[in-house]
Amino acid sequence: MMNKRVKVARRATDTQNDLRKSGQPKYEILGTFWMAETFTKGVKAMHEGALDAYDTVMFRCRYNANIDRWCLLKYRGKWYQITSFNEDYQENQLQMTAVELANQKVNIVEPVPENALYDADGILLLDADGVYLTADYN
Fold this sequence. Notes:
The protein is mainly beta. It is built from one helix and nine strands; from the N terminus they run ββαβββββββ.
């Protein structure tokens, strides 16, 4: 029974500095989805490598092409990282096993509207509602 609301964030960008060292990736919120959750216990938890049975959660939801194994899930105020991902096209379901993130600081960025206007330097000038964002262009 899909009776839990889970927020899904998709990886927007990977950050790299000049030395090719990866920084913390940025995520954008896809939306909130109805899912079923089950805490993994017993032998299954040991198979998943969980030290604590409440750190590993299995989520099921309807199939959505935008959700992939690189997404994060926010459930009950905590972020979870997907460790296994199973798509079942015939049943129209996704089954994901996720582990609670140790570092709960997640970089969330606002998605940029498709019909936004930029200047030559890539600075956002006009948003989707037609509002100028910089004082120089009013």
